[in-house]
Design goal:
Blueprint (H helix, E strand, L loop, with lengths): L17 E4 L3 H13 L4 E4 L2 H11 L3 E5 L7 H10 L8 E5 L3 H11 L3 E4 L4 H12 L3 H6 L1
Parallel strand pairs: 1-2, 1-3, 3-4, 4-5
Helix pairs in contact: 2-3
Length: about 140
């Protein structure tokens, strides 16, 4: 994972939510449970078209999506998000278990902020999500 800085001031994480777009039911449950156990609220859908609609309606703080989705691929979804002024500032983290080098390059070129290969490293995944949500992990360790 790269050390890119998230867009500043996108959304206050206390009111934010993470939109997960994943067509594999078990992967969806895994991502949701990891984030929820870390105190991060989520909303979910299984296809790209619905994901685009949910991003517009809910204005999530972050989108995490699989690249290979039903109805609208993760690459096409990201491109549409980046063309829509109402949601273009929402950072997108792409994930995939297939051809990680190819999909990493394609997702970053489409406008994704990060690419995470599956299987995910849970600690790094949560750390990356918290960075994009603006959650200070040092303060959390003290609290």
């Amino acid at each position: 994972m790269s050390e890119k800085k998230p867009l500043q001031g996108h959304l206050d994480h206390k009111n934010g939510v993470v939109l997960i777009i994943e067509d594999d039911r078990l992967n969806m449950i895994l991502l949701r449970d990891i984030l929820n156990a870390s105190g991060i609220a989520t909303i979910e859908t299984h296809n790209g078209e619905r994901g685009l609609e949910m991003a517009r309606i809910h204005q999530p703080a972050l989108v995490i999506m699989d690249i290979e989705l039903e109805k609208l691929s993760g690459i096409a979804l990201t491109q549409r998000m980046k063309m829509d002024s109402s949601i273009r500032a929402i950072p997108v983290i792409a994930t995939s278990a297939h051809a990680p080098e190819f999909f990493e390059k394609a997702s970053l070129e489409a406008g994704c902020a990060e690419f995470i290969a599956k299987p995910i490293n849970v600690r790094e995944f949560v750390r990356t999500v918290k960075i994009y949500l603006g959650i200070d992990q040092e303060e959390e360790k003290i609290a």
